[in-house]
Design goal:
Elements (H helix, E strand, L loop, with lengths): L1 H19 L4 H23 L9 H5 L14 H18 L4 H11 L2 H13 L2 H11 L6 H18 L20 E6 L17 E5 L5 E3 L16 E6 L2 E9 L4 E7 L9 H4 L4 H9 L3 E2 L10
Parallel strand pairs: 1-6, 6-7
Antiparallel strand pairs: 1-2, 2-3, 4-5, 5-6
Helix pairs in contact: 1-2, 2-4, 2-8, 4-8, 6-8
């Protein structure tokens, strides 16, 4: 049921983005196939019952994520399956030059290199991506991290689904893989067994930019630095649309997009909706703010 719902959400979100703003038509037409293919791969890997990593409560209490020091080798075949399925689609969607595509395929044909990029993404090792990009002749600088993320995400998402939602965590980085969130949400209204009773919802959750895990976070705190001072935090809206906004922290100069699920007729897919919110990222960059987690969508070159 979960995967069927996710596929439906992606299609619905793509349709909404394309319908409400003509400026996004080209992006939806290009990237729609990739979002759907990633979900297809995730579904297949979930069915494979991937090995779950051990959860060390003491390490987590110290702020260390589950996969922080984990050897990714046990999931090498899953990464291989994801790469073989997604690299042809990525080459088409990203319109890679023929030489760049050949170099990329040759590099990632080696499982050690494939796992190395996934490990670098978890560790936030930007130097590894920079060096590899130079070696393979890949530009701009955001491209290789995005390719690695697109290939790795279905694997990490499949691992996450077997961990459950009981991880105790209070930090702004992901309890599973340690990545920062790409977007936050206020939860939809809770409908009880009685059709007459509806809860308020509005609890804040952060959405991991890599593994897709959602975890509860303090509603009035900055995900980047934890700042809770209302005088140095701000919400910015565009065109009077209050349910899609920018959460700004003037203390650290970071921002994150936020969507209020209580205001949507049909709940959007959190990874997909970010493509339709680039106008908010542009607004944030005009104010000299930096995203909590750089992505292909929010890095303005």
């Amino acid at each position: 049921m979960e995967t069927t719902s996710a596929r439906r959400q992606i299609k619905s979100t793509l349709k909404v983005i394309k319908t409400r703003d003509a400026a996004y038509h080209e992006l939806v037409d290009r990237f729609g196939l990739l979002f759907e293919k990633k979900e297809q791969v995730r579904t297949a890997l979930m069915a494979a019952n991937l090995q779950s990593p051990a959860v060390d409560a003491d390490r987590m209490a110290a702020g260390m994520p589950v996969l922080g020091k984990e050897n990714l080798t046990p999931w090498a075949s899953a990464f291989r399956q994801s790469a073989d399925s997604l690299l042809p689609v990525l080459a088409e969607v990203l319109q890679l030059e023929r030489k760049t595509h050949r170099n990329l395929l040759a590099h990632l044909d080696n499982n050690e290199n494939l796992l190395g990029l996934a490990q670098a993404r978890i560790e936030g090792n930007r130097k590894h991506f920079e060096n590899t990009s130079v070696q393979l002749g890949i530009t701009p600088r955001t491209l290789l991290p995005y390719i690695s993320e697109a290939v790795s995400a279905p694997v990490f998402c499949a691992i996450v689904c077997h961990l459950g939602e009981s991880l105790s965590w209070e930090y702004g980085h992901c309890p599973v893989c340690g990545s920062f969130p790409s977007i936050s949400q206020l939860t939809p209204k809770d409908v009880t067994d009685s059709e007459y009773l509806v809860g308020g919802g509005g609890k804040k959750y952060l959405h991991c930019s890599l593994c897709g895990h959602d975890w509860r976070y303090k509603r009035n705190a900055c995900a980047a630095c934890g700042n809770e001072d209302s005088e140095s935090r701000e919400l910015i809206y565009a065109d009077g649309v209050k349910h899609e906004r920018i959460e700004v922290c003037h203390k650290c100069g970071k921002y994150i997009l936020n969507v209020d699920m209580r205001e949507y007729a049909s709940l959007p897919h959190l990874d997909t909706i970010q493509m339709g919110l680039i106008h908010l990222d542009v607004l944030a960059h005009e104010r000299h703010l930096s995203p909590v987690s750089p992505t292909l969508w929010n890095t303005i070159n």
